């Protein structure tokens, strides 16, 4: 299947982001994508297999991929050890699937905001940091003429996949990329903790997209609020500040999403759009839709808090495990407190390579 035969996607005008809890839409740029492919209501049994782009590997490489690092009661990838500081155990994989459903709720059952052509879907799609592979599998199910390739450092994807979905173990920050053909759509979601050089990643994406192809990058920013109920001395704010310090020391700063728009423009992308959504920390919001988002967001945060913090606090900030546990207990209390009107800003940035 030739990626070069894919027709160009239609252009979307650049818009400035809007973020308003009283408006049920996130931004006008998100609404412009309403004709893009819907995710549907299906929650498929996820799967993975090795695709045509995968090269034969040695026994030692296979051993390093399959051997996990055990630390503080969690397991982590061993291939390129330390490149990504979130665990890859069953608890984290369950959270990733829950988070996928949270994104579907947030984006009204859409898998992306980029205005892809529904009549002529992208022929080749790349999902960076695919995790359990659930996004790639859903996209492949909805677009049977597309070839979808998911890459990750951990072989945690399921065993059965749509025939047009493929997975491979790859360090996406190794340059240059060695895929056999260029792509028409590149997708990255919640990879702040794993990418050390987003401008370099965007340059590689630009070089590996066909003219007219789209990139979409989604990430979370640190918790904040609009009414002063999240105090600077709260455990949640302190935790976010410490995460920012630790991730900055690693070159993966928590909060990198604020720069994605400008970085994509600097690389050469056009039609750069940004939608900003809010994930309430619990059910404090008045609007029923935001309450539902808060329910899912709260569960996502409670499941992921230890996963997000443990390696950074113990490996980078050199905290004793017991001190981490004390802080996280206080953070959980903040996340449960409905008097604190905090939320996680979710930035979705999409852009197009010129024709």
TrEMBL record:
InterPro entries: SAM-dependent_MTases_sf (IPR029063). Signal peptide: none annotated. Residues 1-57 are annotated as: Disordered. Pfam families: Methyltransf_23. GO terms for biological process: methylation. Residues 32-46 have a biased composition (Acidic residues). Residues 1-16 have a biased composition (Low complexity). Gene3D superfamilies: Vaccinia Virus protein VP39. GO terms for molecular function: methyltransferase activity. Keywords: Methyltransferase, Transferase. The keyword Lipid metabolism does not apply. The keyword NAD does not apply. Belongs to the methyltransferase superfamily. LaeA methyltransferase family. This is Methyltransferase domain-containing protein.
């Amino acid at each position: 299947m030739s990626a070069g035969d894919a027709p160009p996607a239609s252009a979307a005008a650049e818009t400035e982001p809007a973020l308003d809890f009283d408006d049920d839409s996130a931004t006008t740029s998100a609404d412009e994508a309403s004709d893009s492919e819907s995710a549907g209501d299906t929650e498929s049994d996820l799967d993975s297999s090795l695709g045509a782009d995968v090269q034969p590997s040695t026994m030692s490489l296979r051993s390093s991929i399959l051997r996990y690092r055990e630390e503080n009661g969690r397991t982590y990838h061993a291939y390129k050890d330390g490149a990504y500081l979130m665990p890859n155990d069953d608890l984290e994989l369950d959270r990733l699937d829950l988070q996928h459903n949270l994104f579907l709720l947030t984006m009204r059952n859409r898998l992306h905001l980029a205005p892809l052509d529904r009549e002529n879907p992208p022929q080749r799609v790349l999902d960076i940091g695919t995790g359990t592979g659930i996004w790639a599998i859903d996209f492949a199910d909805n677009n049977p003429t597309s070839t979808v390739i998911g890459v990750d450092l951990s072989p945690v994807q399921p065993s059965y996949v749509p025939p047009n979905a493929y997975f491979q173990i790859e360090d996406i920050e190794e340059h240059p990329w060695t895929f056999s053909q260029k792509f028409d759509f590149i997708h990255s979601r919640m990879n702040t903790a794993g990418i050390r050089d987003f401008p370099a990643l965007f340059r590689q994406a630009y070089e590996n997209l066909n003219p007219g192809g789209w990139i979409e990058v989604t990430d979370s920013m640190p918790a904040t609020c609009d009414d002063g109920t999240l105090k600077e001395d709260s455990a949640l704010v302190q935790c976010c500040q410490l995460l920012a310090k630790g991730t900055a020391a690693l070159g993966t700063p928590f909060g990198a999403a604020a720069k994605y728009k400008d970085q994509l423009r600097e690389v050469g992308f056009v039609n750069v759009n940004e939608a900003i959504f809010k994930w309430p920390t619990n059910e404090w919001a008045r609007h029923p839709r935001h309450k539902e988002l808060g329910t899912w967001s709260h569960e996502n945060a409670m499941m992921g808090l230890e996963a997000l913090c443990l390696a950074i606090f113990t490996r980078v900030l050199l905290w004793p495990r017991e001190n981490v546990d004390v802080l996280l207990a206080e953070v959980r209390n903040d996340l449960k407190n409905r008097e604190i009107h905090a939320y996680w800003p979710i930035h979705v940035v999409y852009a197009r390579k010129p024709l």
